[in-house]
Amino acid sequence: MKAADKRATPDRSAMARLRDTLRRLYHGRTPAAFRFQVAAIVIDLAIIGFFIATPVIQQSASFLWLDYAVAALVGADLIARLLASNDMLRLMKQPTSWVDVFILLTLLMPTALANLGFLRILRLWSLSRSGSIWRHFEMRGLRPWREASHAVINLLTFLFVITGFVYTFFFRNGAGLENYIDALYFTVATVTTTGFGDIVLPGMAGKLTAIVTMIIGISLFVRLAQAIFRPAKVFFPCPQCGLQRHEPDAVHCKACGHVLNIPNEGD
């Protein structure tokens, strides 16, 4: 029994060291952690680029190899983030983790879930909810642009999700770059309410798609305009009530009146 305990101890120690290393890399502020986080963001953007290009390249001979390689990267990142978390169960309950699990399933079963592949672009939304990317924004004094960046990412995610949906269900017979551009053109023309005459989705399903796209799209455009043009606010949780957004020169919390101590951008 004692021999078994001695053999188990190094294993637990190795796992603990691995988790500590991953925590430092994913959540640390050291130069090594910074380089790792930047590399992870670059890889994520490359994966998102692959998702956007998937409708065009999915007929190529090398597509499955790329698909499974991306699945390995997404799976490794998901496992690493779970190990780096102090509460794995809480992390798995978050919508971003659900999105990553769903994306991983579509990558592992590209044929069976081919019709749902357009939802992979939700990885962009998941990336926008990552704490590390916004931490770098704040380190460079770009905190006022955080909300506007969220709005831009939400709009881009919506545009590419709708484009993928339209391409998958209405332009499948003419697969290729030209038809993907047609699907993107239709989506942008609908969202911006500029109208179109040369590309119209057929049938009742097409009309309903256009209606839903216009309603959600114009809402996101309004949200983007609000984020860009309304006065910038800082993110600083009030110690008393938890309100996070305040005026840059606020002395008291407008919700509860608690005295704030908001640091300057250079601090």
UniProtKB/TrEMBL annotation:
Pfam families: Ion_trans_2. It is found in: Membrane. One of its GO terms (biological process) is action potential. The chain crosses the membrane at residues 32-57, 63-80, 101-122, 151-171, 183-202, 208-225. It is a multi-pass membrane protein. Coiled coil: none annotated. Residues 157-229 form the Potassium channel domain. GO terms for cellular component: voltage-gated potassium channel complex. It comes from the Bacteria. GO terms for molecular function: voltage-gated potassium channel activity. Keywords: Ion channel, Ion transport, Membrane, Transmembrane, Transmembrane helix, Transport. This is Ion transporter. It comes from Rhizobium loti (Mesorhizobium loti).
